[in-house]
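Quick one, probably user error.
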């Protein structure tokens, strides 16, 4: 019996060490994205995506994360929501990270569902981000320009922001119609469009309205990932989600889904290390 207990203890220790290292190392996923009619000036334009950070800590003062971002030498950095965690909010952690990121490249930010849960905290975060020079895009758009050529960057608030008294938070269909219509109304057909949005489950709609590239997160890679199968469960898609990570295409539209960098309900990930995403734009042949 003592040998069995010792074996169980050793297995628990090994499991704990594995979980610790799995949750404190950063995977860097790199993609080449073919974009129709991409201006020549934006060939090899590099975008680093940070998603679902949940005011995490990766290394002392997030040095692991900032070092990883700096090594990618991005042209811009995009943050696709859940930069804070509504259950364990620490705005200072996210702002301290941002202070380092803005020294690497211009930063663009859109909200996630966790920001919607506490609008007072969101206001504090937004003030801090703007003070640091971050482009906070609340259902709006900006143009990126190079040598007189441009591409459009559209930022959409998370789906939860489209709820109101006539549109309950759980009425996902009506909220999504409102969100997609708003994105479509902002789209400039004269140049390629990049959409920053938190949830990937509406990719078919983004493709339908002609969005060229979408960056999303939210699903945390399924939180627990099974070998050869992928993510186990995601909040919007249920079990074995279709869009838990990676690059997806539909016609001329591409979506990249980040597994995210933090945790929320579950305090750890399994077979699913925090992920930093780098996308390089290429002219479609």
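Nope, works fine. Designed sequence:
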């Amino acid at each position: 019996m003592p040998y069995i207990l010792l074996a169980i203890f050793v297995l628990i220790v090994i499991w704990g060490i594995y979980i610790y290292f799995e949750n404190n190392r950063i995977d860097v996923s790199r993609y080449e994205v073919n974009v129709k009619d991409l201006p020549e000036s934006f060939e090899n334009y590099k975008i680093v995506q940070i998603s679902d950070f949940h005011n995490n800590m990766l290394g002392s003062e997030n040095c692991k994360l900032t070092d990883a971002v700096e090594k990618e030498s991005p042209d811009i950095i995009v943050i696709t929501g859940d930069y804070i965690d509504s259950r364990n909010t620490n705005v200072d952690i996210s702002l301290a990270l941002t202070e380092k990121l803005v020294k690497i490249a211009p930063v663009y930010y859109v909200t996630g569902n966790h920001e919607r849960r506490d609008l007072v905290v969101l206001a504090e975060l937004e003030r801090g981000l703007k003070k640091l020079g971050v482009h906070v895009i609340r259902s709006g758009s900006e143009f990126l320009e190079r040598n007189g050529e441009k591409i459009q960057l559209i930022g959409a608030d998370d789906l939860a922001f489209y709820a109101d008294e006539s549109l309950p938070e759980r009425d996902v269909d009506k909220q999504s119609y409102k969100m997609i219509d708003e994105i479509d109304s902002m789209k400039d057909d004269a140049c390629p469009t990049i959409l920053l949005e938190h949830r990937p489950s509406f990719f078919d709609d983004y493709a339908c309205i002609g969005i060229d590239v979408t960056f999303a997160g939210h699903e945390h890679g399924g939180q627990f990932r099974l070998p050869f199968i992928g993510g186990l469960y995601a909040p919007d898609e249920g079990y074995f989600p279709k869009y838990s990570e990676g690059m997806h295409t539909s016609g001329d539209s591409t979506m990249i889904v980040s597994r995210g960098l933090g945790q929320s309900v579950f305090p750890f990930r399994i077979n699913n290390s925090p992920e930093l995403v780098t996308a390089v734009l290429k002219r479609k042949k």
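The chain is about 30% helix and 25% strand.
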